[in-house]
Amino acid sequence: MLHFDKQLITNSKLHAQKWQELSLNRRYFAQREQELVGNAITKPQPWLQLDSVTARVMRDNAGQVIMGDLMPLATTVNIGKVVHGYRFNSDGANTTQRSISGQKPQPMDKGSYDFRGVPVPIFTNGVGREWREWNVLQNDDFDAWAEDVEKATYDMRTDMANYLLDGDSTIQFDGYQGYGIRNSPYTQSVDMTGIDLTTATTVQWENFLAQTLGGAADDTLVTEPMNLYVSPEIARNLDLPYNQDEYLSGTRFQRLATNRRINEIKVDYALSGNEWTAFVPNRRYIRPVVGMPVGTQMMPRTYPMDNYQMLIMGAMGFEIVADANGRSAVFYGVGS
User: Fold this and answer.
1) Residue 33 confidence (pLDDT)
2) C-alpha span between 6 and 196 (Å, rounded)
3) Which of 1, 122, 2, 3 is nearest to 51 (CA)?
4) What's the alpha-carbon Rg for the chain, to the nearest Å?
5) How many CB atoms are closer than 10 A to CB 182?
6) Is beta strand 262-267 parallel, antiparallel or unpaired with respect to 246-251?
7) Measured between alpha carbons, how far is residue 103 from residues 94, 97, 110 in Å?
8) Which of 14, 22, 115 is nearest to 74 (CA)?
C-alpha cells in the first residue's frame, strides 16, 4: 500500500524499515530544533495528526477508482531499486515426448530468459511556513499544517493516479521508461472504430462484450473475469433500463455485469467520452511497484530564522506483466 498503517508495519519488513527511517528523521528534526531554539516537538500527537491525514487522503479514491483498485495489488520493493524487473522464458524449444515405454530419447535443453523492467520514480510535494509562525502553529495543534498536508497529499495522489494511466516519458533509467495503462506496449489495444459506448443500445452492448472485448480476451488467452472501467459518459448510458421502457428489467449496469467476462463495472472520472479500460484484478498481471509509502517529514533547519519546510514523499512504479509474445490481461479501447 501507499501509506503507512499498523498492520503493514507489523507484517512487512520493508514497510517497517521505511517507518523506522521516517521516525528517525522526525527525532533528528526535534533534536536540531532543541539545539537551535530550545523548542522541539517531543510529543507524538502532532505527527499522529499528520499521519492520519495522509492515510485518509490516500485511502479516499476521490473518483480515481482505478488507482484505488490497483493499490491492494501492489508489490513492495526496496527504495534502492530504481528499476524493478522480472524475467520471462523466451525459449520454446523444449518439446514433450509421448511413448508407451517412457524410454524415447529426450533432447536435453534449458530455457532462455529475457528481462523486462519498470522505473520506480519518487513523487515529492511539500509545504512550508515562515519561522515566526512556528509557535502559533504549535499552539493550534498543527491544524494549519494538517490542512496544508491534506492539500499537498491530494495533489500527489492525483499525480500518482495520472501516472498509472499515462506514465511519464521523462522518467527513464537504463533504457526503461515509465508507462501507464494508456500507452504501455503491453496493454492490448482494442479497436473501437464504429463503436460508441456512450450511445450504444443493449444489443450493441452485448455484442461489444461478446465479440469486441471477448474476442480480445480470447486472442490473449484471458479466461478470468475482468474489471471494466468506463467514463462518466458511458456510465450514464449504462444507467438506462436494459429493456427500453421497462425499468423492472434492471439497468444495463446490472444486467451486463452478469456477463462471464465481467467481474465488476466501475466508473473512473479520469476517463472521458468513449474511453474505457479493463484488466484482470490480479497482481500476476498488473501491479503498482511501491518503493516508499507516502509519508511526511520535516526538513532540519540550519539557522533559527530558516523557514520550516515539510516534505511529502512516496515512490511508485507501474508494471503490466506480459508473456513472451507480449500478451497481457490489460485492455484499452482506442479509436472512436
Assistant:
1) 81
2) 46
3) 3
4) 25
5) 17
6) unpaired
7) 17, 10, 20
8) 14
Q: Which amino acid is at 246?
A: E
- What secondary structure, in 3-state letters, does 148-183 show? HHHHHHHHHHHHHHHHHHHCEEEEEECCEEECCCCC
Tell me: the pLDDT tens digits for 25-76?
Answer: 888 888 888 888 776 666 667 788 888 888 888 887 777 899 999 998 999 8
The HSE-up count of residue 208 (CA atoms within 13 Å, CB side) is 24
CA dihedral 193→198→201→204, nearest 10 degrees, is 30
Pinpoint the alpha helices (H) of the chain. 6-11, 13-37, 45-59, 65-70, 134-139, 143-166, 202-207, 214-219, 232-238, 252-256
Q: H/E/C letters for each residue in 211-271?
A: HHHHHHHHHCCCCCCEEEEECHHHHHHHCCEEECCEEEEEEHHHHHCCCCCEEEEEECCCC
d(CA 25, CA 298) in angstroms, rounded, equals: 7
- Sign of the Cα pseudo-torsion (284, 287, 289, 294, in order): negative
CA gap 105, 107 in Å, rounded: 7
Is the pLDDT at 266 greater than 80? The verdict is yes
Q: Which three cell numbers stand for residue 334?
A: 482506442
pTM over 0.85: yes
How large is the angle between the packed helices 45-59 and 143-166, nearest 10 degrees?
Answer: 30
Q: What angle do CA 7, 10, 16 make, to 5 degrees?
A: 115
Sign of CA pseudo-dihedral 182, 184, 189, 194: positive
Binned at pLDDT 50, 70 and 90, residue 22 comes out as confident
